[in-house]
Each structure stands twice: as structure tokens, then as C-alpha cells.
Amino acid sequence: MSGDAWAWCEGDPGVLALPSGRLVRGRGLRRPLDPGAPAPAYGVYLLGARPPLPPWESRWLRWPDFRLPGDREEARAVLTEVWHRAAGERVELACLGGRGRTGTALACLAVLDGVPADEAVAFVRRHYDRRAVETPWQRRYVRGFGGLTGREGLRG
After folding, report:
1. What is the rounded CA–CA span in Å between residue 108 and residue 121?
2. Residue 118 — φ and ψ, nearest 5°?
3. Is 28 domain-assigned?
4. φ/ψ of residue 10, rounded to 5
């Protein structure tokens, strides 16, 4: 995937490589994009209030700071779409700081990709940000997300 013009480059800031090889960028919106950084093809913004529209395709998922998604069924559908799209597009997930909500969403993607739910937070902390998934209820959400997808995720 790294040679694909539409894929992120593994090792670039915020890019998480899932076990399947899918690459997803996590980002904090407080830090502006570098002028030379590639833009995503699709972005999902995990915020308590609707953000301004970026110049690429995007979706807002209502998710207040330090909390959980407002609509968990919608969150599951959106994250499943992100997982599918990441197979061939530059997809990013972002909240204000890029750690709590973004880390939680990335951990859910890891579960969809086949990482056991009880290991997904550690996976994201090891490969994305050591402080990702900030609250106990976010960690529980990831473990519960695994129970709803089955231990094999979408790959299995």
C-alpha cells in the first residue's frame, strides 16, 4: 500500500498501521496540517459540535470531549465504513487533541481489523500514541465494541 498515491505512508506522523496493512491517520485538530502534508480523501471528525466543512469528503460523528459517541449504532456504522475505505483511500480520524476520542476510534478500528478487544488499547498506545484512549469508560467502550463485532473482527 505504501506505493499507492492514495495511501498514507507508514511512519508519517499520526499514521497507524493496522495488522491488515490498512493505514489510517489520527490527528488533533488543534494542530493545523502542515502545508505540504497530503490531505485525506475522507475524514471523520469526532467532536461535540459540528465542525466547519473541510475541502475533502467528511463526516461528523457527535462525540463530546472525554465522553463516548452520542449514538453508538451510528458510531459502529461510521467506523466500519472507515475500516472499509482505509483499504484504498487516505482516511483520517480526528478530534481536538487527537488522543482520547481519536485513540478510542482507532482502537475500535483495530478490533474490526482482528486485534482482540482486550488488546486494542495497548495496540493503539504502542503504535499511535502512548496516551491514547484517555478515560476508563473509553477503554470499556473498546472492550464492548469487541463483544459486538465478535473476536475475529471483519477479517475473520
Report:
1. 9
2. -75, -5
3. yes
4. -60, 135
Asked, for residue 37, whether it belongs to a domain, the answer is yes
Measure the CA–CA gap between 43 and 52, rounded to whole angstroms. Answer: 12
- Asked whether residue 135 is assigned to any structural domain, the reply reads yes
- Nearest Cα residue to 16 out of 153, 142, 155, 132: 132
CA 129 vs CA 14, 50, 58, 71, 98: distances in Å = 8, 25, 23, 25, 9
Q: Enumerate residue ranges in the chain where pLDDT < 50.
A: 1-4, 149-153, 155-156
* Residue 10 covered by a domain: no
Sheet strands side by side (includes 91-95): 15-17, 23-28, 91-95, 42-47, 57-62
Range of the domain at 137: 15-149
* Residue 129 φ then ψ, to 5°: -155, 125
Q: How many domains does the chain have?
A: 1
Residue 143: the pLDDT is 96
Cell numbers that stand for 133 in this block: 484512549
CATH number for the domain that contains residue 91: 3.90.190.10
61 Cβ neighbours under 8 A, 6+ residues apart = 44, 45, 46, 47, 69, 74, 75, 78
Identify the pLDDT of residue 148.
Answer: 56
Sign of CA dihedral 143, 141, 110, 124: negative
